Amino acid sequence: MAEYDVIVIGGGTMGIASAWDLAKRGKRVLVLEQFDFVHDRGAHSGQTRIFRHAYAEGAEYIPLVLRADELWQQLEAEARTRILHRVGGLEMAAPGYLHASRARESAAQYHIDFQWLTPSEVRRTWPMIHIPDEWEAGFGPGAGFLDVEAALSGMVGCALRGGVELMAHTPVVSWGASSQGVWVKTEDSRYDGCALIVTAGAWAGRMLQQLKLPLVIQRKLQWWLETSSPTLYAPDRFPIFITDSEFGEIYGFPTYLSPGVKIANHSGGNLTDPDQVNRRVKEDEKHEVTALASWFLEGVTSKVVQSMVCLYARTPDGHFILDRHPKWPNVVIAAGFSGHGFKFTPAIGEHLVLLALDSHEQPRRLFRLNRFAK
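Request: output the structure for the sequence above.
Response:
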């Protein structure tokens, strides 16, 4: 008899979300994580992540983010902590760039509140933003940011209270599956289960070598820049923002937890190895964000208050991989979140669990692995 109903390899963002969902279902669960359950080695470092409903990356994501919104609120109630800060979200694009208009189009399909604004209206409402007259802009009042540590710690606490066994600092050496069940080996133990969920982040390619997943790992930088007017950028006065222009897809946050305005570039990023990534940030690398921030944001200087490295595991089309293993249906894989997965976390965890437990649950077409078949 299997010791566990489900074993989860990787206790990062999506692994711990799966654990929380499994705990609510009363399942026997083991989660194996090579680091700690909140760490700075993978994709979720940097304190905050954007949350938004009007999704430029495709309207297909909107049902997932709406479900995530419900689950984030559920987690806040269960963990008794604030996770989602609804400060609103601005999407802005220079002429010839499509992020803002695509957000508007996707919002219209699902009747999401997304207000199309003129640049003068943006400047009047948020005078610290120097948006040019020829740009486009839209505002989502339900958008905002997620507190990463509160979110992950909340799910960890709920999973533990639900009886989930969490093993930190326990790398997986190998795993296997058959029609009878699954097994996972660490350096000193073997564990048996009925189903397996693999959510190994930047290490997914190695953990699923036989699938030859089309993933590249990118080193990404996050910056906190000094501002001469800190009160202008407080959460009650400043929204999250995304810009699309010749400078890249630059996005940012109000001041929160750390001094300075957090800002980063979703575009670009050097390829790296997750075990050998250079975590030292050079001063001259800040140009990727200061080139825009120096004129776009009132009082934001080029002085770096803090910086941090995180990892993107990118797929060729930028969409996730959420599917069953093509050979073993009792093995579920989640990978390639391409730098925009965190907002969906609890909904993705729920979907992975259903794929593992319910043979009738179908993977969403957008995220199926076979889309990469030659």
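The mean pLDDT is 97.
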